[in-house]
Amino acid sequence: MYRVEPIIYRREQSGTVEFMSGVDGHTLTHLLYEAGKEKGTPKMSIGVLGYKHIEDTKRCVESVLRFVGDIDYELILMDNGSNDENETLEYYQSVPTDRKKIIQVEDPLGPAFGCIFGTRLMYEYARGDIFVFLGNDNIITENALQNMIICLESSPDIGLVTPMSSNAYMLQNPGLQYSNFEEMHAVAKAFNQSDPRKWQERIQTSTVATAIKREALVRSGFYGFWTAEIDMCHRIRLAGYKLILLGDTWVCHNHNYGEKEETHKLASDNSIEAMQEARLGGLKLFSDIMIFENQLLSLLEKPSEKVPKLLAVNVAAGQPLLDVKNRLREYEIFDSEASAFTTDAKYYTLLLSVANQVFCDRIQFLKENLGDQTFNVAVLGTPINLFPDPEDVLRDLLNALEPGGQLLFKLKNACDSGMFQSIFGNPVSAGTEKKLVLAVGDVKRMAGKYGAARMKVKKSVGPYTPEWIETVTNVMENAKVTSNVQEAIENILTDEFLFHVTKAL
Predict the structure, then answer these.
(1) Does residue 111 sit in helix, strand or coil?
(2) How many CB atoms lie within 10 A of CB 37?
(3) DSSP-derived 3-state class of residue 461
(4) Least buried of 128, 132, 140, 386, by fewest C-beta within 10 Å?
């Protein structure tokens, strides 16, 4: 049985560590390592960072103890300088488990920096094979920790897993409904049924209650301030590991606080966006990394091949290609061979982490790079009418498909709401892209010339305010230029037309 005596020490922001036992940091780290070898390394180190809000902290810790089950674990309880008359520290000391270590940070770092610093303490002092870091606004649910382990141990290539949660971005909130915490636990229990078909590989996740293999963190190196989760995910992928969003697992992110006045003095004058771009080697988080093509990929049908060959062209850093693979998992297709082609060299390195082979060249040389290779599924990230010769691109993509193969691509609406607004003196909304005016019927005819046997088209309508929709409606109704006013309004509000093309057998 794994057992560790409680260790309470204080650590200042400067890095100075004062141990109540009088043992220096290097010696303690060595002693913990040796103790781990003698007593057995725990499967999971679970860290909880408390910062004020004692009731939230209690709820978080109690949820861990309630649902950790038979996992061999240690509990790292960290107090980020709560300054609450030792309320947090006294609670930690009262937690009914002998598997805990207690860390007190005397100089508080505030909510944002505290999470980063807390993760660093986990990195330095936890002994488990798997690290789970929790803010005190997280609530663990039944089977959540077990499902994390199942996924992490399913493949040596998987280094980090993140559950779905409330108050999360990056399409990680399934919108579970409940009215109180006990009802929440019942809903979560029904949701938390391990199912590999629901695992989604990601380039980036919002790392709420994330579990990470120790080896992945060690090989990827540590990460910096503000951009912590972005930096960590990026480094782990470059170290050769996969990131998985657990679509079969949900934890509560009861995020209802965060005091602006507690932003730490170390905050840089640089914008967060600029820091993110620097950490990502020139890539932009929202325009290069976080690109989800869910609407387009909803058109993808189940391929007949057990191991389909995939081609992704101009899919930025590669998330759309991963989304194709995630969509195939829903069809119980877990293996595929992927190739990627990009016209921008800055994506090359990350594309190597998602594809078996990567080509970088001008779009005119797509055919030359692919050679005689053929594919079962091809997805084009750049809208077809942003190329100077869209017909040539369609020809090369369709020629690269196997009979019965599927091609997914987009047509940017050149007569969209942005152009409509520009007529009314708002050119900012018109966009900067050079779009060829290309009708849906024209694209269909082009595709038909090169072997398209079946085509589906879906409209992607942008999120517009009710006021703007009312303005468009009034203008079109008063103009009386068409008998089908509703269709005209819908076309104006359409950002992109989504195409699914099946090649003839």
Answers:
(1) helix
(2) 10
(3) strand
(4) 386
Tell me the pLDDT band of 425, cut-offs 50, 70 and 90: low
Position 168, amino acid: A
Contact by Cβ (8 Å): 280, 307: no
Give yes or no for residue 114 having a pLDDT over 60.
no
CA–CA–CA angle 142, 168, 91 (5° rounding): 55
Per residue in 375-408, pLDDT (tens digit) is 999 999 999 999 999 999 999 999 999 999 999 9
How far is it, in rounded angstroms, from Cα 122 to Cα 245? 22
Q: How confident is the model at residue 430 (pLDDT cuts 50, 70, 90)?
A: very low
Contact 407, 380 (CB under 8 A): yes
Q: What is the DSSP string of 237-298?
A: HHTT-EEEEEEEEEEEE------GGG--TT--SS-HHHHHHHHTTT--IIIII----HHHHT
Closest CA to 236 of 289, 163, 159, 290: 159
Q: Are 302 and 202 found together in one domain?
A: no
pLDDT at 225: 46
User: Residue 310's domain is classified under what CATH number?
Assistant: 3.40.50.150
Percent helix, strand and coil across the chain, each rounded to 5? 40, 25, 40
Same-domain status, 271 and 309: no
pLDDT at 313: 98
Tell me the two tokens of residue 473.
């409606």
The owner of tokens 């300088």 is 81
Amino acid at 466: P
